[in-house]
Design goal:
- It contains 1 helix and 30 strands.
- It is an all-beta fold.
- It has one domain: Regulator of chromosome condensation 1/beta-lactamase-inhibitor protein II (Methylamine Dehydrogenase, Chain H).
- A 4-stranded antiparallel β-sheet has the order 2-1-30-29, with no helix packed on it. The protein has a 4-stranded antiparallel β-sheet with strand order 3-4-5-6, with no helix packed on it.
- It starts with 34 loop residues before the first strand and ends in a 10-residue tail after the last strand.
- 53% of the residues are buried.
- This is Regulator of chromosome condensation (RCC1) repeat.
- It comes from Popillia japonica.
């Protein structure tokens, strides 16, 4: 009887593909600490100068004892990160954006004070009525609320959160970004989660019909929960996309593919601010050929225009021209493609920011430039006139300072600056 033949054993088993991991992301460096200066509207305390000062047309020093390493200007509030990893807030607290009790003392919204958090904070972000903080252990706490065209949405399905609330608890986050009314999370596995208002497509995970809290699919609290509870953005499974950087605009989101220059965008594009030819809102992540042409250090997007800072320190702009926000001169047209600001071409830029209709850039020499709408002093020029070209921003209190960070909000602007030393030190990036 013939013996049975057995198939030869093979050890050539294809190993499992290792899971993509992202140990860290590009967040603002915090190895420098400086003095905080503010300008613009302060009627809700967002200047931090006390209840007697409701507007400044030039930058003024905020008397804070703590060493500040980062700052974010929200819609009507300001958030600071200290060297020790603590968060200070001041400004409008009607919906909890300050994350602390301001009812126990008169005018406490007008004075910087700390937020209680369970660990060291390494990054902060701020929207119109919300604030978020990323802790060094990868956990994110948020407070305040989101809003849409129907009014207050709440921060969670339970409503507003007046104090820090642990969000996306089961994931390790390496970077956060805030739009006006949405929040974006980048995890250590290169995934992107979003929550908040979706009406302009900024969450990147709804259809146009499903972007409203009153959408028929689900409806009521169930539909609202779908928007307020963080969930993954919608990308094609066959592309197997992983990301290593994120930025949020007022009504938009930008996401960089890991190890590539490819930039996916979603949200409002009515003035080409996403770098797409179609002017319709983008509800799903779409590759932007315009933004994928460059390697970006930072992208800052406001309502209708976007600034981009590449790794060579060059600054580009795209979008709406009104009020001079593009910095391309009074007679320029809307920029439908990314355009380098020629008057800044010889400068090396280290920090950029867009306000509602303003733009700012900081050079490696510590010089602050601003342009756009100046109606309430948010440019810091001392006037209420609009600027159509990048203009050096000067004030007595900034005279001996080197600016290294800028953030522009609804109608106010904040900067961090170092005192000039005897060696006339140039700021490193």
């Amino acid at each position: 009887m013939a013996t049975k033949r057995h198939a030869p054993q093979t050890t050539d088993i294809k190993p499992k593909r290792p899971k993509f991991t992202l140990p860290e992301a590009h967040i603002p460096t915090t190895h420098k600490d400086g003095s905080l200066f503010v300008t613009g509207a302060g009627d809700f305390g967002q200047l931090g100068l006390g209840s007697d000062i409701l507007e400044k047309t030039r930058f003024a020093l905020v008397p804070i004892k703590e060493e500040i390493v980062d700052v974010c200007a929200g819609g009507m509030h300001t958030v600071c990160l200290t060297k020790e990893g603590k968060v200070l807030t001041f400004g409008c607290n009607d919906e909890g954006a300050l994350g602390r009790n301001t009812s126990d003392k008169d005018d406490s919204e007008f004075v910087p004070d700390s937020v209680e958090l369970p660990g060291k904070v390494i990054q902060i972000s701020a929207g119109d009525s919300h604030t978020a903080a990323l802790l060094e252990n990868g956990k994110v706490y948020a407070w305040g609320t989101f809003r849409d065209s129907h009014g207050n949405m709440g921060l969670t399905p339970k409503g507003n959160e007046k104090f820090p609330y642990l969000i996306l608890a089961d994931h390790t986050v390496v970077k956060i970004a805030s739009g006006a009314d949405h929040l974006v999370f980048l995890t250590n596995f290169g995934d992107i989660f979003t929550c908040g208002c979706a009406e302009q497509g900024q969450l990147g995970r709804t259809t146009e019909r499903g972007s409203s809290r009153h959408a028929r699919s689900g409806g009521g609290k169930d539909q609202l929960a779908k928007l307020l509870l963080p969930n993954l953005i919608s990308t094609s499974p066959r592309l197997k996309l992983k990301f290593d950087d994120i930025w949020a605009g007022t009504y938009a989101t930008f996401a960089k593919v890991a190890t590539k220059n490819d930039i996916y965008v979603f949200g409002l594009n009515n003035y080409n601010q996403l770098g797409l030819k179609s002017l319709t809102p983008q509800y799903k992540p779409t590759l932007s050929q315009q933004f994928s042409k460059h390697t970006w250090m930072s992208i800052s997007c406001a309502q209708h225009h976007t600034l981009g800072l590449d790794n060579d320190g060059k600054i580009y702009v795209i979008g709406r021209k009104e009020y001079g926000r593009l910095g391309l001169g009074k007679d320029c047209e809307d920029a439908t493609e990314l355009t380098e600001i020629s008057s800044m071409s010889t400068k090396k830029i280290i920090s950029i920011s867009c306000g509602s209709a303003t733009s700012f850039a900081v050079t490696n020499e510590g010089i602050l430039y601003g342009w756009g709408m100046g109606t309430v002093g948010q440019l810091g020029t001392g006037e209420d006139e609009d600027c159509y070209d990048p203009t050096i921003i000067k004030s007595k209190q900034l005279a001996d300072k080197k600016v290294f960070r800028v953030s522009s909000g609804g109608q106010h602007t904040v900067v961090l600056a170092l005192t000039t030393n005897n060696n006339n030190k140039i700021i490193d990036n």
